[in-house]
Amino acid sequence: MKLQELLNRIPTLEIHGETDREVSELVFDSRKAVENTLYIAVRGTIADGHSFITSSIEKGARTIVCEELPENLDENVTYVKVKDSSKTLGHLASNFYGNPSRNLKLIGVTGTNGKTSVSTLLFDVFKNLGYDSALLSTVEIRIADQVIPATHTTPDIITINRILAEAVEKGCEFAFMEVSSHGISQNRIEGLHFKVAGFTNLTHDHLDYHKTFDEYLKTKKRFFDELEDSAVAITNVDDKNGNVMLQNTKAKKKSYAMKTMADYHGKSLEVDFNGMLLNFNGKEFWTTLTGKFNVYNLLLVFGIATELGFQQDEILQAISKLQRVSGRFETFKSDGGIFFIVDYAHTPDALENILDSINDIRTKNERLITVFGCGGDRDHSKRPKMGNIAAKKSTLAIITSDNPRTEDPAQIIKEIEAGVEPQNFSKYTSIPDRREAIKMAIKFAEPRDIVLVAGKGHETYQEINGIKHHFDDKEVINELWKLMSK
């Protein structure tokens, strides 16, 4: 693409050099520069891209987009000065790939819990409705039937546009995207055109990054503040921050809820471990998904699909065919009658939701054994809260390691234990080795008991001192059960 086309509708402060030059690709990592690359110098949290302008030119970059021009300008290079490189990057990426987010219907889902589930459920519902779509989530990236492993909650904006362009080329009409607070904060959704934005909930998470809850709230809200008036914003008004998201948006405002009046209202009529009988806007249907949090997830899916123009009866028919998302309230029963649940719950709210859902279903004749931990190098303040929730709502809580990363697992466990209230001291124990903790849960469990293994869900690794070791909770449960039941 010619540089002059690439700069279409992008505000610039100064341009030095010719704009009639070819741009072969966009990079913001100077190490990836090749002949005729456009290099964008972005100021990051660790490094400033302006420091690598010279090395990008040495590797073949012939266009530089930056906020500060170098002292010595190379006459063979075009320099474009802009106010904010990070924001400009998104618009450049959109132009370079032919503005793909305007050539399909892009749906973004944000919130603390449920982003991955809702995005994946939408992808599956639309497949059941007969449409090819794209999915950009934490777990995987999919373009119709093609699966690409995911590395971040929200990929960089160049990658997003490349995936969306490929989806357009393959005939996809819809794209469902998990939108993280990190992605919003780091301008990784800049320049994208969202047709619908969905909000799940806002609870205690990522305060290691955002520092305060208010800052976290403002970051999420920015997603809705920046929507165009042609978009639809749909939020959970049972969450006290649901209406906050809608305060300044230009988008059409819609709501969903179970407890209050809303455009999309849901009721749970029957619930067990095999599924639920639900009523959405006066229509009854059965789903194999279970748990109150899944009622909210499905209600958002229902609302989004309706706003995209589908008939409610056909949406509910497609929802009733859904299978559970990997690692989200995934249940299986051992031949010894013990009921196992694997779930990704790794925040206080998510852990409380899953435990409440289990306690709502069980008859209280069965014991509930919970195995969980907290990730290292992350928000410390949620650890005691999770310790308190697990010990209070389980028959026995076994505190163990999650992904300790560079922290000492024993120290993480100590911080979790600090939240357990004295009356629940007899209801918990701690075993730092996750495999041994699961082994103890199986040993302690009797027929009909429920064992919840929380925190990792779909993850198939455990990160210790920067090294990822293979560890899949489901595999470990099955393997230990076979060994111990011989």
Automatic annotation (TrEMBL):
Cellular component terms (Gene Ontology): cytoplasm
Pathway as given in its UniProt record: Cell wall biogenesis; peptidoglycan biosynthesis
Domain Mur ligase central per the UniProt entry, residue ranges: 109-304
Protein residues bound to ATP: 111-117
Residues that bind meso-2,6-diaminopimelate: 378, 402-405, 455, 459
Catalytic activity: UDP-N-acetyl-alpha-D-muramoyl-L-alanyl-D-glutamate + meso-2,6-diaminopimelate + ATP = UDP-N-acetyl-alpha-D-muramoyl-L-alanyl-gamma-D-glutamyl-meso-2,6-diaminopimelate + ADP + phosphate + H(+)
Processing after translation: Carboxylation is probably crucial for Mg(2+) binding and, consequently, for the gamma-phosphate positioning of ATP.
Keywords carried by this UniProt record: ATP-binding, Cell cycle, Cell division, Cell shape, Cell wall biogenesis/degradation, Cytoplasm, Ligase, Magnesium, Nucleotide-binding, Peptidoglycan synthesis
Taxonomy, superkingdom: Bacteria
Gene3D superfamilies recorded: Mur ligase, C-terminal domain, Mur-like, catalytic domain, MurE/MurF, N-terminal domain
Protein name as it appears in the record: UDP-N-acetylmuramoyl-L-alanyl-D-glutamate--2,6-diaminopimelate ligase
Organism: Chryseobacterium soli
Gene that encodes it: murE
